[in-house]
Write a structure and sequence with these properties.
Length: about 140
């Protein structure tokens, strides 16, 4: 777990580590990913240090999706993924909320961009899904 002092993204926000800055607002910074999985792979981060999306105060979220949209539009990619991971089991490597814009060329197949499977939980019945729905709804 990264502490605030050792967080690579916080160091980028503070200017201690250089980045290829694309966009900056009062609360958000967007820059090129230095370990891209596609041409044009970019990161959008809140300047506020929070490990997971659920840790990020709502007042720090207002610029995130508009920045993602601007960056995605600037890539001119017809196809792209907007990815945000939370926790090691979900493939989060840097313990600071961040969003990936990953262009996916139509002809790339598994050679460029995000490659995923979609393991549909076919053994969940409608009744089980309905029960989960009711539990989630009660927590909102």
């Amino acid at each position: 777990m990264n502490s605030l002092a050792s967080c690579i993204f916080c160091k980028i926000v503070k200017g201690e580590i250089p980045c290829m800055k694309l966009l900056e607002t009062e609360s958000v910074l967007a820059f090129m990913d230095i370990g891209p999985i596609a041409k044009g792979h970019c990161l959008i981060i809140p300047k506020y240090h929070a490990e997971k999306l659920t840790d990020l105060p709502e007042d720090q979220m207002k610029d995130i999706l508009p920045a993602c949209k601007k960056i995605a539009t600037a890539t001119r990619a017809d196809n792209f993924n907007l990815l945000q991971n939370n926790g090691r089991a979900a493939h989060q490597v840097v313990d600071h909320v961040h969003f990936h814009i990953i262009p996916k060329p139509s002809d790339a197949g598994d050679k460029e961009g995000l490659v995923i499977g979609w393991p549909t939980q076919k053994d969940l019945s409608k009744d089980e899904i309905s029960k989960i729905f009711e539990e989630l709804k009660s927590r909102l």
